[in-house]
Design goal:
The protein has 37 helices and 24 strands. With 931 residues, it is an alpha+beta fold. The structure holds zinc ion (ZN) (2 copies). The site of one zinc ion has 8 residues, from loops.
Length: 931
């Protein structure tokens, strides 16, 4: 069998279809992994990396004394499968294979993924031949040619990928741990540091600082408006920016008629067609269409996988000779681009445009297959069309412009106006993404006199440098050698998701600045692009087999040790600087009670808003636990309370904006205050004025204090406190009910637990006890199905029974035995015969009697008579002597209260039969035997 391993499931499917031609491909799902078979071939897809590199065991404890952050530099690593199902399927198939072809993407990352697959195969089949298919587009021609020209895996290329992986892990893990520990951050708050990430963040922070330190300069621009044949023309003073106001005013005053045309120059300008797309120029162009870098790449990859475009990760801007440009044009014929393609075919430029970068691995991004708007959907179509049009533009002639430059003299003050007219649109016909603005001047002749309609002196200010947009940042990263075409957009995505930067254009957050500043001050190697750039150069050398992986990793290790020398010497300062700078991140504004700052506090999974005046001021606002999302401060502020708004953010779900924490605190507690019968609007206002918002605050107050605050007498205050305690109890039970329902009834779409409990509450079911006695119809009304309702009722009854038995004094050990015997309700204990209870639970009958007595007293019922252990054992022997009575029958007789010969002899067979289910005739037999 010939096993073919592709990078992803979707490309596996497509490669199989293309290779099979007219033959039918059989798709089979094993586990959750699909395989595609035809002939004697099977194609299976990976999920990118299916193994990951991690440290050897023993390095998981961040606070270990021995395995310090620095120890991670020299820690050994292991490869662990991350996609176990795929790994085991590949190994299963490998055992049967007589040829394996690796058909992953063709670049460093793809080669490394290919090598990982290679190792998986080798581990179970050491002798099978393994080769490599390389292609730049998943199209019939490319795939066919790749499989006709199979080569070997490029181990040097894969080694470069492995080196990067190892170094990233080593730098990222050790520095992240060090910085997080220094700043006392753990869990979700860790401060990540990375080899490419940190210098990129530093650029954004530097730019922000430049903007903040920018001092704007005032300057003046002078222009005039004239006209010819009814067409207004604006001319600018040739001095350009006046930085001296006096000079500008003098030039303005000197600008007088007559305005004389002194010179007219006509020229022609060539407007070059754009060069082919590499990844960076593609991302920049896509960002003009409103797509973020990550989005543009995601869509491009999808288009590639489906054979619509060539491989989108490329640094090449020159079409290779092997690329069949005519063939690509032909595939685009017939669709919406038909007219444009025909035009390009007629007006083809001699050679296509070429950019500055040329590499051999992949061609520039170009269309590979025809598509329709309907098949792709809006965003994918937008990207596809951009790539098609760019391709057409690179084959189109340049555009040409005629330019006019006119100079004027206004009584000694020189002015100029320029115009441009598109002479031939060239590539602009097929690539409408960059605007060509024509400015056509009237025809002027030297010596001609014109009127001055207006003189305009404008005051302006120099502008600070702009913040980086995502696409601009990617360009700069490329210039600085930071990251690769495949990783740049991911690095930016990480900075956003780690909350180091926000917005587009990108702005650093407080944390982002704090971490960058601390690193800058104490170990600038991490924030300077130099180190990362050196590594990229070393990677190139590894690819060319001029340096070894171990050698480069060794050098990087040494460099990192030197970084740690500096970091460890200043651990306290680094931590202190970060903590001081980030405290502000959690500060919301003034405490309503004392005026100190309110701050968001995180304690494990719980979080709340506390006052920095604690312990003198105990004001605080509770927040939902961090499982609902981590509380952060956002830009908006409450006009009434001056507090920053709060939002809960959780990965993978939409944020929950709480808004002003105090407004929300007040709103959510007013209803509870209203549960107190004596509460009035006035009282609520008094309480709010004294910053008391919750029932529990009132319940916890001294009557004297409350009397002052609420403006009531001592008796009234006492009553309020009691009412508050009652309300608290009702609330406590409600919350218990809510938790109980949430535990038993599984969450489902469109059925929120809040809705269920609200409906129960409306029907008067406010606690678990009420629930245990509820009518199933009420539960149905609350949106719980029949099965769920009976389960919920049974669980509620069980819990109430258990509580009651505990209250009556039944010890926990015995309670368990009653439950195991299925006789754990108070009614069971009060009404079932003691011999039966004893036999069901294995508890001594005398102890059972004691328990029964406890429960009956608790419920105000009378206790049945005692049965001694001796009597029970004797009775049992008597019963077993009766012919026809066995162990099972004894148990059934116990249920009817019969436990010895005497009670059996006295029994009424009718009644015993109905309780025990023993046939009447048999009972008569037993009794007559005894008589
Ligand atoms: Zn306070
Ligand atoms: Zn507010």
């Amino acid at each position: 069998m010939h096993l073919i391993i592709a990078e992803k499931n979707i490309s596996a499917n497509r490669i199989a279809q293309l290779l099979a031609g007219n033959e039918k491909v059989k798709a089979v799902k094993e586990g959750s992994v699909s395989t595609y078979s035809f002939d004697n071939k099977t194609v299976v897809g990976l999920k990118g990396h299916v193994v990951e590199v991690d440290f050897e065991p023993g390095y998981t404890n961040w606070r270990s004394e021995i395995n310090t952050p620095r120890s991670l530099i020299d820690a050994g690593t292991v490869k662990k499968p991350t996609e176990k199902k795929i790994v085991s399927l590949i190994q299963k198939l490998s055992k049967k294979a007589d040829l394996v072809t690796i058909a992953t993407d063709y670049d460093t990352e793809g080669e490394l993924i290919g090598k990982e697959a290679y190792e998986l195969v080798r581990a179970v089949n050491p002798s099978v031949r393994i080769n490599r298919a390389r292609f730049s587009a998943i199209t019939p021609a490319e795939i066919r040619s790749a499989f006709e020209n199979l080569t070997d895996l490029d181990f040097a290329l894969a080694a470069a990928g492995e080196t990067r992986q190892a170094i990233d892990l080593m730098w990222g893990a050790s520095l992240t741990r060090f910085i997080s520990l220094a700043a006392r951050r753990g869990g979700r708050d860790i401060l990540s540091v990375g080899r490419v990430q940190s210098p990129t963040l530093a650029m954004i922070v530097d730019r922000e600082r430049e903007i903040e330190n920018f001092v704007p300069q005032t300057y003046w621009m002078l222009s005039l408006t004239t006209e010819k044949d009814g067409q207004p023309v604006e001319a600018r003073h040739t001095a350009g920016r006046f930085t001296d106001h006096e000079a500008a005013l003098a030039a303005e005053a000197g600008t007088k008629e007559p305005l004389v045309v002194t010179d007219v120059k006509e020229g022609q300008k060539n407007d070059r067609a754009p060069t082919p797309f590499d990844t960076t120029t593609f991302i920049v162009a896509a960002s003009r269409l409103g797509l973020s870098a990550a989005n543009a790449m995601r869509i491009a990859e999808d288009l590639y996988m489906n054979g619509y475009i060539s491989y989108p990760r490329t640094d090449n801007t020159v079409y290779p000779k092997s690329l069949d440009l005519n063939g690509v044009l032909e595939t685009l014929r017939g669709g919406v681009f038909d007219a444009d393609v025909a035009w390009v075919q007629q007006h083809r430029r001699e050679v296509p445009t070429r950019g500055k970068k040329e590499s051999t691995d992949h061609p520039p991004i170009h269309p590979a297959g025809a598509a329709t708007r309907e098949a792709l959907g809006q965003d994918r179509w937008k990207v596809y069309e951009l790539i098609v049009r760019r391709f057409l533009a690179t084959l189109s002639p340049d555009a040409t412009w005629t330019t006019t430059k006119c100079t004027f003299d206004a009584s000694g003050e020189p002015y100029t106006a320029t115009g441009g007219r598109l002479l031939s649109a060239g590539w602009r016909r097929v690539y409408p993404y960059s605007e060509a603005k024509e400015n056509i001047l009237p025809i002027f002749t030297p010596g001609e006199r014109l009127p001055i309609q207006k003189v305009n002196l404008e005051e302006k200010q120099t502008q600070p440098p702009a913040r980086y947009s995502q696409s601009r940042l990617i360009q700069v990263m490329e210039e600085l050698g930071l990251g690769t075409k495949s990783t740049r957009h991911e690095v930016i995505g990480k900075l956003v998701s780690r909350r180091y930067v926000e917005g587009n254009p990108l702005r650093p957050t407080l944390v982002g600045r704090a971490v960058t500043d601390a690193l800058d001050n104490h170990a600038d190697t991490i924030t300077e692009p130099e180190m990362t750039r050196t590594l990229e150069e070393h990677m190139q050398l590894i690819k060319q087999s001029q340096r070894s992986r171990d050698d480069v990793i060794g050098e990087s290790r040494e460099m990192l040790h030197r970084v740690f020398d500096k970091l460890e010497a200043h651990e306290k300062e680094i931590g202190g600087e970060i903590m001081e700078q980030t405290a502000e991140e959690h500060t919301l504004g003034p405490c309503p009670a004392c005026g100190h700052d309110l701050r968001i506090r995180h304690l494990g999974v719980s979080q709340f808003i506390g006052c920095t005046g604690y312990p003198e001021c105990r004001f605080n606002i509770s927040l939902p636990g961090s499982t609902w999302g981590r509380a952060i401060r956002i830009e908006e502020t409450c006009p009434e309370h001056g507090l920053s708004h709060v939002r809960l953010i959780r990965k993978g779900s939409p944020p929950w904006t709480i808004g002003c924490p105090l407004c929300s605190h007040i709103a959510s507690n007013v209803e509870a205050l209203r549960m107190m019968p004596s509460m009035t609007d006035d009282l609520v206002r008094h309480l709010h004025e004294h910053h008391r918002y919750t029932v529990s605050e009132i319940a916890g107050m001294q009557p004297g204090d409350l009397a002052v605050i609420a403006g009531v007498d001592a008796e009234g205050a006492g009553r309020l406190i009691r009412e508050a305690e009652d309300a608290l109890e009702v609330l406590r039970r409600r919350s218990e009910l809510r938790k109980f329902v949430r535990k038993i009834v599984p969450p489902r779409k469109g059925r929120s637990h809040a809705k269920i409990t609200r409906s129960l509450l409306e029907q008067g079911i406010g606690d678990i006890h009420a629930l245990s006695r509820a009518d199933p119809a009420a539960l149905k009304k609350a949106g719980i199905g029949e099965a769920g309702a009976s389960e919920l009722l049974a669980a509620a009854r069980g819990l109430c029974n258990e509580r009651l038995l505990r209250e009556a004094g039944i010890p926990a050990v015995s309670l368990k035995k009653y439950q195991a015997g299925g006789v754990a309700s108070p009614d069971d204990l009060c009404y079932l015969p003691i011999p039966y209870l004893s036999s069901k639970t294995g508890i001594n009958p005398e102890t059972v009697h004691k328990h029964v007595d406890m429960v009956c007293r608790h419920l105000g019922r009378s206790t049945p008579a005692k049965v001694s252990k001796v009597a029970l054992e004797r009775g049992r022997r008597e019963l077993l002597e009766v012919p026809g009575i066995g162990e099972a029958t004894v148990e059934r007789l116990y249920l009817a209260g019969i436990y010895d010969a005497a009670t059996l002899r006295e029994a009424d067979p009718e009644e015993v039969s109905s309780i025990s289910g023993i046939a009447k005739a048999r009972l008569y037999d037993y009794i007559s035997h005894l008589k």
